[in-house]
Write a structure and sequence with these properties.
Length: 270
Amino acid sequence: MRLSFINTFCLMMTFCVLGFSQSIVSPQNSFAISGQGALLGGCEGRSPWNSAAAISDSSKISASFSYVNLIGVTQTAGDFRLLGGGLRFTGKRLSLCTAVGLFDALSVWRETFIHTSLGLHKNHLALSADLDACEFGIVGAPSMRDNSARAGFAGFIHGKFLSAGLSANIPVYQNDIAEPSRLSRAHAALNLQAAQSPIGAPGICIEIRDIEYPQFSITVGEYFRVCKFLALDASLRTNPMSVGLGATFTGSHVSSSVSGRTTSNLGWSY
C-alpha cells in the first residue's frame, strides 16, 4: 500500500512538473527574462542563449551567469529555480554562443540544457546554425530520464536604424515522453528591433508554435537608456499573457541585470 501511494505520488508529480516546465521553462528564460524575446538590442541581446546571428554589438568575448527563481507555483523561494551560464565570442566574420542551464523543481524533476550556435557575418547580413540538447527526468531514477535535441537556423539583417531576423527550430531527436509529431513542437519567430534613439529602442517578436495547429504569440517591448550606467526595459506578451520589467546597470567591463516577469496563471519569476 505504501509503495503504491509513493508510486502514484511520483507519477502525479512527474506529470505536473513536466507540464509546468514545458509551459514556461526554457533555457532562454534564464537570462534577462523581462524582454521575453523582443529586445535583442538590449541586455537580452547579449545572452549566450541567443542565435549567433542575433549578435550586433562590438563585444569581442563575454561571459555571463544568471539565476531565476520561479515562486509563482508554491510561493516558496527556491522550490523552482533555473540557472544558466555561458560564453559569447564575436570575431570579424565568425561568432559563437555556447551555454549550459539547469532547471530544478522541488529536487524531484531536473532538466539540463546545452546550447551551441555558430554564426557567419558578412557586412549587414548574419546567418547561424543552432543546436540545443536537453536531458530531463526524475532525480535519482535513471530509467525515468530521457534526452531530446533540437536543430535550427537564424538569419538577421543589422541595419543602421533597424535589425530584422527570422529564426526557426525543430526537434531532431525525440523520446517517449515527447509528443510523436515533430511539427507539433516546431518553433519559429520574427524579430524587429529598432536602434537606440531618444525615444528608446522598441522591439517586437512574433512567434508561432505547433506548425500543425498553429499558436501565435506577440511580444512588444521597450528598451530605454536613462544614462550611461542605467537602462530600463519592459515588455508585454500575449498567449499566455505576461508582463516583464527590468533594469540593467552597466560598468566599464561588467554589466548586471535585475528583471522579473509575471504571468496570469503562474505569478512572478525574477
